[in-house]
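[Meeting: bench + compute handoff]

Bench side (C.D.) handed over the final construct sequence. Compute side (W.E.) agreed to return the predicted structure before the next meeting so the bench team could plan truncations. Sequence as handed over:
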Amino acid sequence: MDYNKTINLPKTDFPMRGGLPKREPEMLQRWEDMDLYHELLKKNQGKPLYSLHDGPPFSNGALHMGHALNKSIKDFMTRAAAMRGYLTPYIPGWDNHGMPIESAIIKQNKLNRKAMSVPEFRTACHEFAQHYVDVQREGFKRMGVIGDWENPYLTMNPGFEAEEVKIFGAMYKNGYIYKGLKPVYWCPYDETALAEAEIEYQDDPCTTVYVKFQVKDDQGKLGQYGDISKMYFLIWTTTIWTLPGNLAIALHPRDSYVLVKADNGEMYILAEALREKVMKVGGIENYETVATFQGQDFEYMLARHPFLDKTSQLCTAEYVTMDSGTGCVHTAPGFGADDYETCKRYKIDMVVPVDDRGRHTDYAGKYAGMKTDESNPVILADMKESGALFASEEIVHSYPHCWRCKKPIIFRATPQWFCSVESFKEAAVAACDDVRWVPGWGIDRMKSMIQERADWCISRQRRWGLPIPVFYCADCGKPICTDETIAAVSKLFGEKGSNAWYETEAADILPENFACPHCGSKSGFTKEEDTLDGWFDSGSTHFASMQKDQGFWPATVYMEGLDQYRGWFQSSLLTAVGALGKGAPFKECVTHGWTVDTQGRAMHKSLGNGVDPADIFNKYGADLIRLWAGSANYHVDVCGSEVIFKQLSQNYLKFRNTARYCLGNLDGFDPNNLVKPEEMVELDRWAVTKLNRLIEKCFAAYDNYEFHVVSHAINDFCVVELSSFYLDIIKDRLYCEEKDGTLRRSAQTALWLILDTITKLFAPILAFTCDEIWLAMPHREGDDERNVVLNEMNKPFTGYALDEDAMERWEKIISFRDVVNAELEKARNEKKIGKSLEAKVILGLRKEDAFLAEMDREELADIFIVSQVETEMVDLSVANVEPAQGQKCERCWKVLPTVGSSSKHPTLCPRCAQVVPAIEVE
């Protein structure tokens, strides 16, 4: 008889290799055909709401790994919540306005925006943005992200724009929005103001200069020490181009300053704390300190500008420090916020000697028409020649750059619209206390950023953006923004979109017979030409989309990159507090890091160091991108590389093959007829108890959005508890016991509970593979067989759990098994045995391990995967291996003295001889 045919061999169509690049698109089509997103909402209708509000990416390019990380994590969050009993609406969104779109379309489509009418250019931008909405949407769908992809929110949609102007109107009405002239970040290449969130710092080489400002009017205080025409205030700056804008020199009022006389006859005024350092830089070895003063002693003195025919006033300021420079701070109110405030306090007129393109105006004299970076070496050379230069040094310093064009920006005072964060700062900071921050340090970062912010510059000199809904009276010139005008603009935008602002006269937008609320005039009105900061757009999504279209406020959670503490998180919080008088529009705030290469550099197209998600789809499949995102601690930077994806593919195969093992051995198994706990073999209960612990660990990890903990815990469970221990041991029972006998069904029950559980636990991360497993496995009544995500995750199977004492015993058994395995390997090397089933193990047990001697010998032999075990009590634990005595069973390959005891089956052991007839009957 061919006993091989009596073995219960695994049987499954589930393939060993994933073949994901080919299989996933087919699965996506199936999901789409069944309308999985709406089926999921229908399934969970009436359950508690879990609302993740999507932070909108810019629709200005193809999918990159930053997108892949972000959308993967969001999908983990919504799927995990759905599978744990929550209703999970997810409406994806896109940020469509602003400089990122303008820059991309000008570069890619070679457009000359200045040669186009405003509506023409805006229409081109709209089409461009819509194209990349479609491109990105297909990429996100390819990743398996579940959402309402047919009805996303777009910040360029008329309905959205109509609501956003209401946010502006509410903040204006509350007194938080005003127009003013003050220095802001300015990009001369894109010719627009920038917000702090649009600034990146890079290390740049520069020439720092120490410049002499001759004393002109000493207020009668310095003449006693010498000729004031030879006295100079020494200032220090890293931005030579700002010197034409100098109007003042600031000193700390209470710090000590000295008048130093050098051997060249000149006398210099500088901080005492910096005297030695500055003299050394200037190459002056011989000098004497003539007098000592406090900074306030110089207040209101005047100094001559080193190369322009004007004077600079001496002022005092608390922000002056002694950690660098000279203690005499070059002050140009048109180029710096502190400078502006100081000059405003001293009633010094504002001067802005640089235009929109970063070129000096006529105010700068001979440097007029030069770009700021072009003027630096020219001014330096002129000061050297005139003797105005005291010293110079070459250094590398951190300097702000435009986040979009990557070029250095300047500080420049221009008329801009501002949101006065200072006016409601306390309420905004207090709102942070009601939010759960993940990681926990997020609250401190957000609070500090709000506390350090006085104003938010919300105007942009761009064409592609939401027009600032403000009118100006032709008579009094004052800005107009009232409930009435906001309602009119909102109605216009809702019906025709914001292009109508440029196509419609002010009189045709405003109500009939509208009168200026300031002067009562009806003689005419003009419209504001600036557009709103893109962060105001995205910061309004909680009102213009989430509340209006989705019907909830606040969201359960916002989740974006680390840079959004100064971006979307903050702008959303500020508009919620400033316009609505509410707290934060989110109950939880979660952040992820950057995607970086193996050198730790942020992936960027210009560096050529990125990984294209499309390449990963085609080579490994989307589930590998999801596993990458789900295996890393995403709160810090996440590295992506070919090496990492190869390694992840190995981890993926371990999980897949564990599932395949289970599926193969569950052929014909009915999960509606599980073995009861009291009938289950203790080893199987050990496996289920370990499974319970995995469930608890994964649930806690999902609660804390620690998806890498889930991935690693499931991988470890598959490798350590299952592959390295449990699955090897139960093979004999699965293959050789009676097909429907209790012993085999006990193992199958444990396998089914394990497979059902880990498939559900891992489904939020490995969306495709777990659904593939789900479709291949047997189910209980009540399961939704259509898709794994339509089912709730299993809670611990407490009825099957072993108590702690039993689990401690099993830990000892496992430690003995490790010892036995080492001895078996040694015996193989010594040629005593071949396979482990040819071995007999003699266990020497100490008193505290006596429970092993009480265990069934056959059970112990199965655990050690040997044929025979004997035990003896000794003082020191030991394991010895020798060849097993008896004959080899032709069916199970165990070597036993009882082989041949059945006359009908003389080559079988008693167990196999008993099982085979039942199979023959079948």
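W.E. noted at the follow-up: The radius of gyration is 38 Å. C.D. will use this when planning the next construct.
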